[in-house]
Amino acid sequence: MCRSYWEEVETIEHMLFFCQNAETTWKLSPVQWDGLKDMRSNFVRWWEGILGAKQRDHGQEHIALTVNILWQIWKARNRKAFETKETDPRKSVQQAIVEWEEHIEAQKDTDGESIQQTTNSSNRGKWIPAPGGLIKINTDAAFSQNIGRTGIGVVARNVEGKLVKAWARAAHKTSEPQMEEASSIRMGMQMAQEANWRAVEFQSDCKEVVDMINKETGQQSRVDIILEDIAIMRYLFAKCTFSFVHRTGNCCACSLAKFVVKLTKNVEWKEYFLMWLHESAQNDYKGSNSDVSNLVLSS
C-alpha cells in the first residue's frame, strides 16, 4: 500500500507520478514532459524518453530540473511515511527550482570571473572509503581574486560513500594557497570534533600541506601556525589520519568550495543535501560520471 496516503500498491511509478502529492507536484512543476505521459506506467521507459531530450535546446538543464523534482517528491513521501509530516507541493517545487539553480551556478563562473582552485589539478584519482569504519572528511579551498573572497568546502562521508554532513564557509580574504588549504583541514577537524566523531581520516588534494602534516617538518613558513593547531587537534581524536587525493577524487569538496565563494553566509547540511552535492559525492566514489537514474531514490 502507498506509505503516504494508503491508496493502492506503492510501486515506483505510483510514488513518483500517481500518488496525490506527486500528481499535484507535477502539475505545479515548470517542466511537464507532456509527450511522455503515456510512459509513466513504466518508469524505465519514461526515463529513457527523458534522456532522449539531451540534445534539444536546454535539454540538459530540463533533465537536471526533472531530477530535482523527483528528488523532492521522494523526500516528501519519506516525511509523510516516517515522520507523518505533510509537505506542501508548492514548497517542493520551489525547493527543486532553488537546488537546480544552485547546481547551474556551481557549474559556471558567473560574470566572466575566474574562480581559481588553490592547487594544481591532476588528471587521475579516485575517492576510496576510509578503512576500519572511519568517517572520511574531504576538504578544499577556492578563491576569487576579483572579489577578494575565499571559499572552504568540507564534506564528510561514511564507509559506504554516503554523505553524512557538509559545511561551507566563506570569508573576505585571499592568502597563500597552502594557508587556505591548511585552514580548510583545520576547519574540517573543528567540525568533526563538534560532531563527536572519534575516528576520522582527513583528505586534501594539496599534497604539500598533507606532507607537511604527516612529516611534521620544522621549516619556517606562514602556514606553520595553522599546522601547529592541526598537530594539537589531532590528539582530540582516538584515531586521526591525513591523506592526499588527486583533484579528480576530491570533486565534491572542490565544487562546494567554489559554490560558497559568492555566498554571504556560512552553510551546513546534514540528513538532506543539495542534489548536485549528492551527484558529485557519487562521482568521487565511482571515479566516473554517475547515472542520474541511480540518484533519484538515494537517501
UniProtKB/TrEMBL annotation:
Residue intervals of the RNase H type-1 domain: 138-259
Q: Where is this region: Disordered?
A: 107-127
The protein's matches in InterPro entries, at most eight in alphabetical order, are given as: RNase_H-like_dom_plant, RNase_H-like_EbsB-rel, RNaseH-like_sf, RNaseH_domain, RNaseH_sf
Q: Where is the composition biased (Polar residues)?
A: 113-124
Question: Matching Pfam families, A to Z?
Answer: RVT_3
Select a single GO molecular function from the record's annotations and give it: RNA-DNA hybrid ribonuclease activity
Q: Which PANTHER family match?
A: BNAC02G40300D PROTEIN (PTHR47074), POLYNUCLEOTIDYL TRANSFERASE, RIBONUCLEASE H-LIKE SUPERFAMILY PROTEIN (PTHR47074:SF48)
Quote the protein name from its UniProt record. Answer: RNase H type-1 domain-containing protein
Q: Which gene encodes it?
A: LOC113728957
